[in-house]
Each structure stands twice: as C-alpha cells, then as structure tokens.
Write a structure and sequence with these properties.
Chain B: Pfam families: SUFBD_core (PF01458), SufBD_N (PF19295). The complex is a heterodimer of chains A (436) and B (478). Chain A has 436 residues and is of the alpha/beta class. Chain A has helices at residues 24-39, 72-78, 112-118, 120-126, 137-146, 379-387, 392-408, 414-429; strands spanning 7-10, 64-65, 85-92, 95-101, 108-111, 151-155, 164-171, 176-178, 181-186, 191-200, 207-217, 222-230, 236-245, 250-257, 262-271, 277-284, 291-300, 306-315, 320-329, 336-346, 352-361, 366-376. In chain A, the strands form three sheets. In chain A, strands 4-3-7-10-12-14-16-18-20-22 form a ten-stranded mixed sheet, with helices on one face. In chain A, strands 5, 6, 8, 9, 11, 13, 15, 17, 19 and 21 form a ten-stranded mixed sheet that branches. The longest helix of chain A has 17 residues, at 392-408. Chain B folds into two domains: 34-423, no CATH class; 424-477, no CATH class. In chain B, strands 3, 4, 5, 7, 8, 10, 12, 13, 15, 17 and 19 form an eleven-stranded mixed sheet that branches. A seven-stranded parallel sheet of chain B has the order 6-9-11-14-16-18-20. In chain B, strand 4 (197-201), helix 10 (212-215) and strand 5 form a beta-alpha-beta unit. The chains are: A alpha/beta (436), B alpha/beta (478). Chain A binds chain B through residues 46-48, 51-52, 331-332, 334, 344, 346-377, and chain B through 76-78, 377-378, 390, 392-422. Strand 22 (366-376) of chain A pairs antiparallel with strand 20 of chain B.
Amino acid sequence: MPAVLEHPATLLESAPETPAAFPAWFAERQRAAWQRFLETPAPKRGDETWRFSSYKQMDFAGFSARSLVSSASQLVARSISLEEVAAKFVFANDQLIHSDAKLPEGVICLPLAEALVSHGDLVKEYFMKRDTRLGSAKWTALHEANLRNGLFVFVPANVEVAGTIEVFHWLEGQDTAIFPHTLVITGANAKVRVVDYFQSANDSDAGLAIAVNDLNAGPGSKLDYIAIQAFNEKTKVIQVNETGVAKDATAIGFILNTGAVWARNESLSRLEGEGSRSDMLSVSIPAREQEYDQRTFQHHVSPGAYSDLLYKNSLYDESRTIFSGLIFVDEGAHRTDAYQTCRNLFMSDEAEANSMPGLEINADDVKCSHGSTSSQISEDEIFYLRARGVDPVRARQLIARGFSVEVIERLGDEKVEEMVLRFLDDKFAHIAGGGA
Amino acid sequence: MSYDASSTIDAETQEAIDIDRTKGDFSFPERHKFDAGRGLTERTIDYISDVKGEPQWIRDFRHKALKVFREKPMPTNWATKDLDNIDFDIIRYYLSDGEKPKRSWEDVPEDVLRTFERLGIPEQERAFLAGVEAQYDSEAAYSNMKEELTKQGVIFVNSTEGLKNHEEIFRPWFGKVIPTGDNKFSALNSAVFSGGSFIYIPKGVKLKQPLQAYFRINSENFGQFERTLIIADEGAEVMYMEGCTAPKFETSTLHSAVVELVALKGAKIQYVTVQNWSSNVFNLVTKRGLAMEDAEVRWIDCNIGSRLTMKYPGVIMKGERARGEVISIALANSGQHQDTGAKMIHAANNTTSNVVSKSISVGEGRATYRGQVHIPKHLKGCKNNTECDALLINTRSRTDTYPAITVKGNQHATQHEASVSQVSEDMLFYMQQRGLSEGAAMSLAVNGFINDLVREFPMEYSVELKRLIDLEMEGSVG
C-alpha cells in the first residue's frame, strides 16, 4: 500500500500533492482537477441546479484532508456488516485500515490506491469519465484533486459475485474532509452488489465528505449499489453518483439518508443500451435541522430502455428536503418507459419539502410520467393503531417505517433489506419522542 | 411637441423585425396620429403620458417602472435563449390613430384568412379581427347592453378611462397584484402600458353574460402592452373573455400584457383567454389574481400560435377558503414554443387550488409546463392538485415539465402528476379502419385528449376551438 500523504493545509488553500506511487496520468488529472476547481465558480443564487438550496452550507474553508486515525481498531470492530460478505474494506479518513475478501477468480477488488498502480489502464478507462451535470462540477473537481483512496471493483464477463462487497468509510477528527470514491465495472452478464457505509467516529466532530461513484454496468449485467449515509449530525456531505447502464443490463442505485446536517445527493443514470433498466431509489428520514438536497437525472440515450425512480422522505422537526428530478429523453430514444415519483410524508408542522419533478422529452414514442405528493399521517391510521394498543409515538414510527419499506423492498434481498432497516430503526430511536 | 415619428423603415430595422417572412410581410405603410417613435427612453414615456393626458402619479409610476425595466435582467436561468432575439430598441412602444388600427384586407396573410373561413367567423367579426376598420351596425345594441351594465353599477371601460374617471377604485389596486418589479416584462408594461380593460363589479352583482361580448365591439382591443384590472367586489361574479379563437394578426413582434384580478370576499372571477397569435409574436404576459376570503379566481387559458409564449397565470389565495384554478391548453406547432403553466400561492388557511394543463406538440413544436405551488409555514388545511398531460404528435416534437412545489408543515396535501404520451398506433389504425383519413383520425384523437378541458370553455368557444385544432393538425401527420 502506498504511503498516505499528510496534507495539513486547509482544503481550499493550495493544490494537494499526488502520492508518488500513483501513475503520471493520474497526477496530471489531479493537477487539472485542482485548476478546474479554482476556475469553476461556486454555485450562486439563480442557478437552476441549486434552486431552494442553502448556499451557506457550502462554506468548506475550514476543513483539511487529514489522514490521522486514532481509533482504527475500534472502527474496524464497529464496522458491523451483513453476516456473510464477499469482501469487506474499512477506510478511516480515506486510509485503508482493514480488508478481507473471498472473491471468485478474475474479480479485481482492490483499494483504489492499489488499483491505480496495478491496473492503471483499466482505472483510466472508466475513472470519472462523465461530466458532472447536476450542479456540483466544482465539488467533484475538488474531489478528484484530493482523491487518495476508495474501492475499485471489476467483475469479468459471466462472473457472479454471490455475496455483497461492503465498504466502510469512517470520518474522524474535527474539520476533517474525506473524498471516498467507488468505481465499479461489470463485464457482460456479470453480477455484483456493493454497499458503501458512511459514518462518523463520534458525534462531536464536524466533518466533510465529498464522495463520487462511477458505476458501469456492462451488457446484460446486474449491478446493485447501496449507499448508507449515517454520518453524525454535524457533518456535511456531497455524494455524486454516475451510473451507465449498457444493453440489457440492470442497475439499482439506493441511497439511505439518516445522517449529516446537510447532504446533497446527485444521481445520474444513463440508459445507454436497448433493454437497459435503472432503478433509482432513496429513503430519507431528516429530523431536527437536517437538510437533504436530492437532484436526479434519468438520461435516456438509447431507445427501448426503462427507468424508474422512487424517492421517499419522512420529514421530522424542522428538517427540509429538496427533490429535483429530471427524466431526459434524447432525440430518437423511442420506446422509452420512464417513471419518477417523490413522496413526502410530514411528521411535523415545522418541516419543509420542495419538489421539482421534471420531464424533458425529445422523442414522441414514449411513456413517461412523474408524480410528487406531500401529505401527513391520517388521524384515522393513528387511531386504528392506538385502538390496538400501540402508543401514539410508536404508531407514527410504524407508519413512517411502512412508508419507507415500500422502497427498501425493491432491493430484492432479505438480508440487505434487514440491514437497511436496522439503520432506519436506529434513526427512529434518535428522534426525540418519535417525532410525535 | 415633436418626436421622430418617421415610419420609413431602414434595411437593418426591417431585418430585425422580420422574424418569419414566410407567414406574410407584416410591415406596411401606416400613418398614425400619435407615434412615440422607436426605442424606449424617458421621452417615450412623457409622450405617452402627454397624449393620454395622464395625472402626475401615473407619469411617475411609468418613469419608475422604466428604471426597473432597465435594471432587471432577463429571466435567464431557465428561459429560452430566443428571448435574446428581442430588440427593444426597434420596437414602437406607442402607436395610436386615436381609435382603430388601419390595415386593409390585402395585408391579411393567406393562412389567417383561411382560418377565418374555416372557423366560420362572420364577415363583420372577421373584419374586426383582422384589424380592418369595420362598419358596425351593432352600435345600438352595444349602447343598450352598456346601459344595462351601467344601471347595475358595473364599470367596463378601457384602462385609460378607468384611470381618469374612476381613480378612487382603480388606484388602490393598480399594480398591487403584480408589482412593477415582478419581472422584466411587467416592468416594461408598467412603463408603456396602453389599452386593456378596467372592470369593476359592485357588491353582490352577478353578471349572467360574459363581458367579452361587449368587448368585441369595444375598439381598444389592440394593444401590445395592454393593462387589465378587474375588481369584483364582495359577492360579485363575472366572467371575462379575452382574445378570440381567430388568429390575432399582429404587426408587432412583442406583446407584453399585465392582467390583475381582484376577487374580494366571496367574489368569483373567471377569466377566459383563447389566443392564436401569428407566428412572429413574442407573447410574454404576466397574469395574476388575488382571491380574498371565500373568493374564487379561475383562469381558463388556451394558447395556440405565437413564436414564444411565456405565460403562467397565478392566484394568490389571501383569504381563508379562497380557491384558485388554472385550466389550460397549449398547442405548439413547428417554430413555436409554448412555455406556459400556473402559479398557486397559498397565503391563508384552508385554501385550495387546482391546475389542469394539457399540451400538444406538433411537428417540431415545443410545449413546456412550468409551475409553482407554494404553501408557507403556519398555515393549515391547504390543498393543491396539479395534473399535466402532454401529447406528442411527431418524432421531433418536444415537451418539458418543470413544476416546483414547496410545502411547509404537515396539515396540507399536495399532489402533482404529469404524463407524456403519443397517440397510439392502435387507436389510429382502428379509426382508419372505419374510413377516417390519417389526418382526421389524428385530429379526433387530439380533440379526445383535450375534450374534458374544452368543455370548460364557453360553448361558442369550444366549437371554434375544436375547429382550430383540426386546422392546426392538418398536414401535420407523417
């Protein structure tokens, strides 16, 4: 493993150094990315991709990309996972602190820092090859310039990874910034599931994470990706997810948001081949003053593709959500079948939900629809549960849980669904009075 | 007072005005009694105020608006780049020969004439719609109707007259629903407005007949920058119809109206627009209603034609149980962009709003729905329902939907649904099996798509509307 460089200067002050072990092309990309970061203007009021956003959240000046970790062994122990996994990687402040993998032959599953050295050409072919379109071009440039590690997964044609590949990203230390990166490539008819867990070492350190995923589903393959965002409520997160789905391939992208004070999710799925399918799913439970800003893009490049987006938010206390989604159908992308639904369930009279479900259709032979609703729990439902002896706080939790389960069930694996529900229940347990 | 009133057009200007020559040359010699000249300066405003003999407060209002217009940026973050093609310096902001625009039949383009024929519009009305100075034999009938309205205390005059003769009712609401600085085009209108209606319906008066019937013979129909203010006092009811189903043959390229509606406690205002602009017109209109306690404002809006229409009728529901509604149809043919939608601002408890919008994109036409629903904090029991459906006719047709819904608090219900579809092959095949041509089958399918909305229009409108859609669909298939 290459040595991890300390970069004690604050994040925005000077260009980070690329570790010497990394290939020259990568060092060049990092230099260019830093330049791009400097040249790209910060989001401003009036930018359509930042409508309703809280600009003040984007003051990242005080953060530094430290790699020092004081509690590595404890963090490894706290990396509670699914019972049986194909591989498990634990990173803390972008340093690998644990790895364990039992994978079929031919599968390359390595920390990105190693893959850059041993499989540089393959990484180069897929690494951040798409432009960020949903507003965070400046922040993904900062990510690219500061990138030190992450996970690289390559599953060759016709190989199925039976279990799940798990990646833990821990954040430790006041004002620490991390830049997790996950790059997944599946060959023809391959199959894999990757789970990223984002957590804080303690409740007191305010951190920053700018995470980017490149997911590339080859022809006929199946790629499931799950992100569990459960940072402490002082941390800020930008997560950018770019998925390309080839002919007859299926990709699932799921995001659970329970943590962070401010989280911006940008998810883009490109339907690149006929018969491709993308399921974009999310469950968010914001409480107190948490704000989740969700931007999605279903890009139908190829004819005859299917995409379905389902985002559900249960809003407690003074929390706030923004959902802005777009189904974009290219000229000639006929027989597109695309759906987009965002549902907001209000658990408090102080919460705020903003929805901007959008369509841009440039082909005529299509079936596209979107919907957005916001509503509250009906008193009848509460009454029904109370009549059966459930206390009101629990009753409201049960309803919010049931509301979310509809999305989680689409993951199609009981063990994984249970794991997601554990994080969900953990969140409910931390909401004062159950949000009643 | 002397201003450059020259109507000779130099080559460069000609080129700038001439956006779509294929639809007929709209520039022809005119001799206007009053002409503010080209471009917009303080002098233009003083000229308009002088000609109209306006009080000082209106002159000041116009001057202030001009400043705002100059400072305000174009709506650039989402609006189409086509807006950049408007050259504000070549526009003539005020033209009047005192009464009616003078044009002759020879100037009316072929397609406009054909539309008149096909809609079965009577000779007299055609003459009026084409802007030809027409001989009316209905002057007597008009006077009778006017008298009846006057007896009930209804005021129905053009806005200049409203300002002069009814300042005490006009002034308190003028510019209050749509402030000057609302957007660049409302500022422009505030600076140079002329024409449009001022209507006041007294307490409890419920008009049985829609008001436009009178308006058709009210000569001030033509205005690039008309300003309309309708006030329905407590419990009053009125339906107002603007425009007509026939093509509005305009010589100007920019139309920028401001329409303000005020429905006081328990009042009801329905505002019906069916517009079919000629295809060189930028139609950039700001329309908003204010609904007090138990009041209702309902916009029924149909947009056909124009080069670019940007129009989002809105309702501010300011009193408890107020209700707002927008029912709209847009049809975009090749070279046209219908950017329409609705804004629903809930500002009191138990207010409800409903938006139903249907669009059809034909050829290379583009239809856009842009919506806003806003329910701020500390309100209770607000409801919004929004439905938008888009129909695409050809492979290069285009449609977009961009709603924005903000809800604060848990005592409300909002839902938004939109769908995009095309006319199904099966349906067309089925109809063709029964002897309809492909075009006729397509027209039938399109009319079926908007049928439930067309029924919301007054009867004579809905018949004309259906014919108009048939006409637009002609030759659009394949």
